[in-house]
Amino acid sequence: MFDEADPVLGRVRALALAFPDATEKISHGRPAFFTTKVFAYYGGSVKVEGAYQQHDRSVLVLVDPDERTALLADSRCYVPAYLGAYGWIGVDVADDSDWDEINELLDASYRRTAGPRRVAVLDRLRQTPPG
């Protein structure tokens, strides 16, 4: 269900695996990034007229409900099958996506799922000056 050589997956993978204790597994045929709980998936689908429409180049994240509402006004965003009922949102990505925005969405999802100890580690890492 995904192409290992996909450069967009490579960028998503690099961002997701930069979070503390993040790792990757294949779940339901797609890359999933997690600590104790999954905080992002690469690829999703929506059910349209009884058939599934694939969004192979997308990131599924769990964001704050207010942010989710705002994102759904964006044409790149969709409510994914199955996970959408639990607050997840899909965001289509491409080579020319705003990767800072994608990283912010991954960050928001990580913070909702990773637990307070990992979030504290992330906060310390983000405050440490480079070098």
What would CATH call the architecture?
Answer: Alpha-Beta Complex
Please work out how many helical segments DSSP would assign.
4
Portion in helices: 25-40%
Structural domains: how many = 1
CATH topology assignment = Aspartate Aminotransferase, domain 1
Order of helices and strands: HEEEEHEEHH
What is the terminal-to-terminal distance?
A: 39 Å
In percent, how much strand structure appears in the residues? 25-35%
* Low-pLDDT residue spans: none
Gross morphology? globular
Structural features:
6 strands, YjbR protein, YjbR-like_sf, YjbR/MT2646/Rv2570-like, Aspartate Aminotransferase, domain 1, 4 helices, 131 residues
